[in-house]
Design brief:
Blueprint lengths: L24 E5 L2 E4 L4 E4 L2 H4 L8 H13 L10 H13 L6 E5 L2 H16 L3 E5 L8 H5 L4 H4 L8 E5 L7 H4 L4 E6 L2 E2 L5 E2 L2 H14 L2 E5 L13 H5 L5 E4 L10 E5 L20 H16 L2 H15 L5 E7 L2 E6 L3 H10 L2 E2 L8 E4 L7 H12 L4
Parallel strand pairs: 3-15, 5-6, 5-7, 7-10, 10-11
Antiparallel strand pairs: 1-2, 2-3, 4-12, 8-9, 11-12, 13-14, 14-16
Helix pairs in contact: 2-10, 3-10
The chain binds pyridoxal-5'-phosphate.
Length: about 375
């Protein structure tokens, strides 16, 4: 039984919509958090995959300070060199052909715009998503999220949605027809619990969407930005979509998202067709440019691949019976409810996450993780009852 209790730090003015973990972080350095009561926690969760370079990376702090002192904000109605550089760097990191970039603020906003592009370009009104998917909480993003019917919260869906069973190639032809505007998929499903979609299933979706003139959208909000050990999961799977969405770690913790697109999907666009006030602001762009440079210059993709294989082979101890996922988006399958295991890990100084699957503990560590941190996690898991 865990003895942890929740510190009473939140103002009653805040809407009570989040259950809280039993600690308040007050500082972070590298992959370590310090809590209000003076404990240290090794962060294998990164604020839902956002702290891509951990906390206090000197190059991120310098880029933020320099941009803040130079020009704090201007919107998309002015050209900005820093925005152009961020877009160039992101397109260069992304799969070939995804050469067009629209910068936004969050994952849901990226998906909302990707779906808008697909529906407008095709003139169709049906979307196919994958069972277990999570795409965000705005109207279109929530409509393609699994369980939308239960918690969607709007009186009607903005378009018709069908859900395709995960990795069920035989079901593709029946559901993905000439009425479908888009198929949206997370190549590695995050919130579901690090469920990997088969490369063969994704390739079959690629072939079928091309045949029926539908748009293939990869939501890489959680699995992109180097997290699988390749720049994007699209490269890992060898399948290039028409549109790809990214957010979370894109700017290392500063709100930022993006839609990447093949140019042929944008030929109908005119000025004013997409818009956002904060998206593509100079602070976010300076950080996007820096995050991409750090990933490449510090060799972080190779590090993810190497440490991920250690995690996959060594974490099968204590209550962990299997490990799934790719790179640094891993799901530890637990013999006991994952919620219990997460709380017991916190007591032992390690922060991990849960998932929609109640028997999955999710690991989303910063890409700057080191061998010694893997040791700490493995020791903590080994100390827990099976
Ligand atoms: N898409 C995926 C795959 C996600 O995991 C999330 C958030 O967890 C989102 C979209 C929504 O992103 P945001 O919370 O930034 O709107």
């Amino acid at each position: 039984m865990t003895t942890l209790t929740m510190p009473a730090v939140d103002s009653p003015r805040l809407m009570p919509v989040y259950p809280h973990l039993p600690f308040e972080p007050v500082a972070g350095e590298g992959v370590w958090l310090t809590t209000r009561d003076g404990r240290r926690l090794l962060d294998f969760y990164g604020g839902h995959a956002v702290a891509l370079l951990g906390y206090g990376h000197p190059r991120l702090l310098a880029a933020l300070a320099e941009q803040a002192q130079t020009l704090f904000f201007q919107s998309n109605i002015t050209p900005l060199a820093v925005r152009s550089r961020a877009a160039e760097a992101l397109a260069a990191f992304a799969p070939r052909h995804l050469s067009q970039v629209f910068l936004v603020n969050s994952g849901a906003e990226a998906n909302e715009n990707a779906l808008r592009i697909a529906l407008r370009k095709t003139g169709r009104s049906k979307v196919v998503a994958i069972e277990g998917a999570f795409h965000g909480r705005t109207a279109a993003a929530a409509a393609v999220t699994a369980g939308a019917g239960r918690w969607y919260g709007f009186p009607q869906m903005p378009f018709e949605v069908d859900f395709l069973p995960r990795n069920d190639e035989a079901a593709i032809d029946e559901l993905v027809t000439e009425e479908v505007a888009a198929v949206i998929a997370e190549p590695v499903q995050g919130q579901a619990g690090a469920y990997v979609l088969d490369p063969g299933f994704l390739a079959a979706l690629r072939d079928r969407t091309r045949l029926v003139g539908a748009c293939l959208i990869f939501d890489e909000v959680q699995c992109g930005m180097g997290r699988t050990g390749e720049p994007f999961a699209a490269q890992l799977m060898g399948v290039t979509p028409d549109l790809l969405t990214v957010a979370k770690g894109l700017a290392g913790g500063f709100p930022a998202g993006a839609v990447l697109a093949r140019p042929e999907w944008l030929d109908f666009l005119a000025p004013g067709d997409l818009g956002t006030t904060f998206g593509g602001g100079p602070l976010a762009c300076a950080l996007i440019e820096t995050v991409l440079a750090v990933i490449q210059e510090e060799g972080l993709l190779a590090r993810v691949r190497r440490l991920s294989s250690r995690l996959k082979s060594e974490c099968r101890v204590g209550p962990v019976v299997a490990v799934q996922g790719e790179g640094f988006l891993l799901g530890l399958r637990t013999s006991r409810p994952a919620k219990q295991v997460v709380l017991e890990l916190i007591e032992r100084g390690v922060l991990a996450g849960g998932a929609a699957d109640p028997h999955i503990v999710r690991l989303l560590p910063p890409l700057v993780l080191e061998d010694e941190h893997v040791d700490v996690l493995v020791d903590a898991l080994a100390g827990l009852r099976a």
